[in-house]
UniProtKB/TrEMBL annotation:
Residues 28-253 form the Peptidase S1 domain. This is Vitellin-degrading protease-like. The keyword Protein biosynthesis does not apply. SUPFAM superfamilies: Trypsin-like serine proteases. GO terms for biological process: proteolysis.
Amino acid sequence: MISFFIYLACVSYAVSSPTIKSLDDLKIVGGESIEITDAPYQVSLVRGGRHSCGGTIVAKDIIVTAAHCVLGALANEFQIRAGSSYSEKGGQLYPVGEILWHPSFDYGNMDSDIAILWLPKPLVFSDKIRPVQLMGRGEEINDGDDTIVTGWGNLYEIGGTPSTLQRVIVQKINNEICNDAYKPLYAITNYMLCAGAPGGGKDACQGDSGGPLVHNNKLAGVVSWGLGCARPEYPGVYSKVSALRSWLDDNIYQLRWKHIWRSV
């Protein structure tokens, strides 16, 4: 089995012997600094007092992130920082009460790389903290359409951590083209979508994992993996929300009811 280090939507790749890099720490390459009011759905997943991954607000008590950011961890290891343009300060910190990751996810194929975080203390919405709508079941993005990725990941493939939130516009890439690019390392499945810039230079990278890819004000993807950062031959790979919507809906519903019954 091929092993490689995954960055958010970036992976470090050596032709002779691919190795895996920390999946928890991907960032934005080729983007621009923005304020949290430009992407109020973006949150930082804090572990051990430090930014570890991105996440997306989809309801006052629900955050969506990548499974590889939380796999095997306990809820009390994490907090959510919401309402801040900075990953390490400002905004409000919220405890995480429960984590659910997709049961089909594993590091061997990176398929279904998605997880739900339940917050026992609901978020207070404002111009800096606001949910984004989920892409509908079966809803598709046309190849070549613009999508927006945000996060606090690396500004370059090696190093360059931003002090403020970054945003980059990348285009949806056809899955067959993306699959050809990644053969024989990984297969691009129906639960993944790819995005990048035609000439490279724009991508998610180390530190962005778990963060949002947004299309037409809807959460379309979750930063998952890729080879390098912003390489023209390797698009970023994202978990496809529309294909995973049934799992999200069912488990968000069950999580809420479980905690309602516990509180009775």
